[in-house]
From TrEMBL:
This is MobA/MobL protein domain-containing protein. The keyword Coiled coil applies. Keywords: Coiled coil. Residues 19-46, 88-115, 157-212 form a coiled coil.
Length: 280
């Protein structure tokens, strides 16, 4: 029993020394990366960010039990591969490139939302046309009888004012909506079908953009994690980039990226505070 205890103490001591060496190597690695970043012109390279992020996740995974470790390593590898493919497919290399892509997607999303809203409103207006067509049909006989009279016209109008006014109002609204007061059921149905098809197409495009944002959000999270872990302040690095003579357009994109990230973090913190207060 004593021999076993001594063996356990020996193994524990060896394991502690091993972990200490690993930790020292990791700290050395981080310090080397800090120094590399200090002198590296391509600080904002996204391939660097996701590679370092993947390495950091690997360090975390190795501290877990074998099953959890393998599961995490597999999931991280899939995300890493997906991120690399996304960057390559969209020809993105730097944070400035990523921000430019985000701005493009935001513009596309805004336009799609506006188009969907306009087309939906048009469909609602066209659907109303069917109701106005029924009103016209129901009151057509009274209106035409009134319209054809030369004698007692005013008296007839007073007696059938509600029907005549409904007819005239329905015709006026129909013309305002379609450009014609004529009843054209098939034309309206055809236009509605066309609009619905266009909305479906726009919704599919929006879904593609949504899926693209999943890749973007992972990359942005990787950037934030690496910056936090290595103590990288984007404001300071932007100043360095300006001194290096980076293009104003590139600096502007990076600043925009930083501003959006800060706004996001503020919204997230505000949401957390709201739910904390709700729980009290």
């Amino acid at each position: 029993m004593r021999v076993i205890q001594e063996r356990i103490i020996e193994l524990t001591s060896w394991l502690n020394d091993f972990i200490k060496v690993l930790f020292e190597k990791y700290e050395q690695y981080k310090q080397e990366k800090r120094e590399e970043y200090e002198n590296k012109a391509e600080l904002f390279n996204l391939y660097e960010y996701i590679s370092i992020y993947y390495d950091l996740q690997g360090e975390k995974a190795r501290k877990l039990n074998p099953y959890a470790s393998n599961k995490k390593i597999g999931a991280d590898l899939r995300r890493f591969s997906k991120a690399r493919i996304y960057l390559k497919d969209n020809n993105l290399e730097t944070i400035a490139d990523l921000q430019e892509r985000i701005s493009t997607l935001q513009s596309q999303n805004k336009k799609s939302s506006q188009d969907i809203k306009a087309k939906t409103a048009r469909i609602e207006s066209l659907n109303k046309c069917f109701t106005y067509a029924d009103i016209i049909k129901d009151n057509k006989q009274v209106f035409e009888e009134w319209n054809s009279k030369s004698l007692f016209k005013e008296s007839f109008y007073n007696s059938h004012k509600d029907e005549i006014d409904k007819y005239k109002r329905a015709r006026a609204i129909l013309e305002k909506i379609t450009g014609s007061s004529a009843i054209k059921i098939k034309d309206w149905q055809k236009e509605i079908q066309s609009l619905e098809d266009e909305i479906s197409k726009l919704n599919r495009q929006s879904q593609i953009v949504k899926e693209e944002y999943e890749s973007i959000n992972h990359i942005k999270y990787a950037v934030k994690t690496v910056n936090d872990d290595y103590g990288i302040d984007l404001s300071i690095e932007i100043d360095k980039a300006i001194k290096r003579g980076e293009k104003p357009s590139v600096i502007a994109q990076i600043k925009k990226y930083q501003e959006q990230q800060e706004a996001y973090e503020k919204r997230k913190e505000k949401t957390k505070n709201y739910y904390r207060n709700e729980e009290r």
